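We were asked to recover a plausible sequence for a given structure. The inputs and outputs are reproduced exactly as logged, with field labels preserved.

PROBLEM: sequence recovery
POSITIONS: 456
GIVEN STRUCTURE:
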């Protein structure tokens, strides 16, 4: 163990690493409740998504630990799953049966591209050529988008014919309990409770059970109000039903890719772009927190870490889940002293153990996972503090459009598209064409073609 992970060299030990791994798992296990709900909305088999999420997280995290020797865990990324479900499946391709198969195909292609970019060390270079304001604006916009989805899932906001959105009925159990859940998570975070988001989900669900038993929450499947009490008949109910994985694994639609090249390319690019900055930013941020960067501020074994992430994305697509990416929650384990891949291996083991708890995760309602979406959205929105709202107007308007177009047009891809188009156009019209890197011209052309196809 010492020889393989170099524990002494990193100033750690087995006990510390295992504790850190458990902490990381608790911090990010909420994805096991959130992902099946979100991808289930897109028409996928929820239990199959649960298994795919747990298995792909375990595999990708194991590779990160053994191959790159970093205390970084991976799982289906927040924001990327929202783009998968609500922008593609329930948005652009809403009239297409099994649109989720197109989305999985796009993730597969994205993962393969990332593997190639990682092998040629192009990924690190690419991330430096996109304007900082756009990077921060896109992340902040995704935060607002995720928050909006959480508010909708709990009926805190609802559709309105006059104003498009309005406040929901705060006297109903789902709305009230979701708001209580947000407060509970905030309180636990204040007291630095490990796994606060996960415990917040579970606490909200348990409060929902009491509401059901007391008659406040009324079961009515016709309006989406399902029983919150798990029906467990025996120990056999906890055995994973791998047959459901057959409903999601290797379900690709290459015909759409061939017949709709431009539209498919835009979908892939949005996945690629968001995952690119999310991964690089997470790796640098977590490594910096654990003092794992070298004297020049570079990340040793960066190629291995990025390749691990890319392989995880391909594995996730094959199993049937949205883009697998590095989790910033890994910083929770690093804060506990995790410094090597043994932390990641421990987290991977717990993701494997989680597959036996589907009977629990299957009854957790949308209003219980909504607080997680809202709080994660808060953290992503905080990137707006890094944005500049004065100076170069290309940076200002580009970043601003990236932020607002995601929630207001209900599409992550639209936010990226309008932000980048505006940035290039303002640069050109103000005579600053020398500031535009060739890669931005390529991106501009791609999105300009997309606009043309939407208009024609």
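RECOVERED SEQUENCE:
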């Amino acid at each position: 163990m010492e020889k393989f992970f170099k524990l002494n060299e990193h100033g750690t030990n087995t006990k510390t690493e295992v504790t850190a791994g458990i902490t990381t798992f608790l911090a990010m296990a909420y994805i096991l409740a959130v992902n099946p709900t979100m991808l289930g909305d897109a028409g996928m088999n929820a239990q199959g998504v649960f298994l795919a999420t747990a298995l792909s997280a375990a595999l990708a995290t194991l590779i990160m630990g053994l191959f790159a020797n970093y205390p970084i865990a991976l799982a289906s990324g927040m924001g990327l799953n929202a783009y998968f479900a609500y922008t593609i499946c329930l948005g652009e391709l809403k009239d297409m049966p099994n649109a989720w198969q197109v989305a999985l195909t796009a993730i597969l292609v994205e993962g393969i591209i990332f593997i190639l970019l990682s092998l040629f060390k192009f990924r690190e270079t690419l991330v430096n050529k996109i304007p900082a304001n756009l990077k921060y604006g896109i992340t902040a916009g995704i935060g607002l988008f995720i928050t909006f989805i959480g508010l909708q899932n709990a009926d805190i906001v609802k559709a309105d014919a006059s104003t498009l959105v309005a406040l929901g009925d705060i006297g109903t159990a789902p709305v009230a309990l979701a708001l209580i859940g947000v407060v509970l998570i905030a309180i636990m975070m204040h007291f630095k409770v490990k796994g606060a988001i996960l415990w917040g989900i579970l606490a909200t669900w348990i409060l929902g059970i009491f509401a059901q038993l007391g008659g406040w929450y009324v079961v009515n499947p016709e309006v989406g109000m399902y029983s919150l009490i798990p029906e467990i008949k025996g120990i056999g109910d906890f055995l994973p039903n791998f047959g459901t994985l057959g409903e999601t694994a290797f379900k690709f639609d290459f015909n759409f890719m061939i017949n709709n090249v431009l539209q498919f390319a835009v979908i892939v690019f949005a996945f690629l772009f968001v995952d690119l900055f999310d991964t690089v930013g997470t790796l640098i941020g977590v490594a910096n927190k654990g003092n794992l960067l070298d004297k020049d501020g570079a990340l040793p074994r960066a190629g291995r870490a990025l390749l691990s992430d890319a392989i995880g994305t391909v594995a996730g697509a094959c199993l049937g889940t949205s883009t697998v990416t590095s989790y910033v929650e890994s910083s929770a384990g690093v804060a506990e002293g995790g410094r090597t891949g043994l932390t990641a291996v421990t987290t991977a083991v717990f993701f494997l153990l989680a597959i036996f708890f589907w009977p629990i995760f299957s009854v957790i309602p949308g209003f219980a996972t909504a607080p997680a979406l809202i709080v994660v959205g808060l953290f992503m929105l905080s990137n707006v503090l890094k944005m500049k709202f004065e100076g170069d107007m290309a940076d200002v308007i580009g970043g601003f459009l990236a932020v607002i177009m995601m929630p207001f047009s209900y599409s992550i891809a639209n936010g990226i598209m309008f932000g980048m188009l505006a940035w290039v156009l303002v640069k050109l019209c103000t005579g600053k064409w020398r500031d535009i890197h060739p890669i931005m011209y390529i991106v501009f052309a791609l999105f300009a073609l997309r606009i043309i196809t939407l208009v024609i």
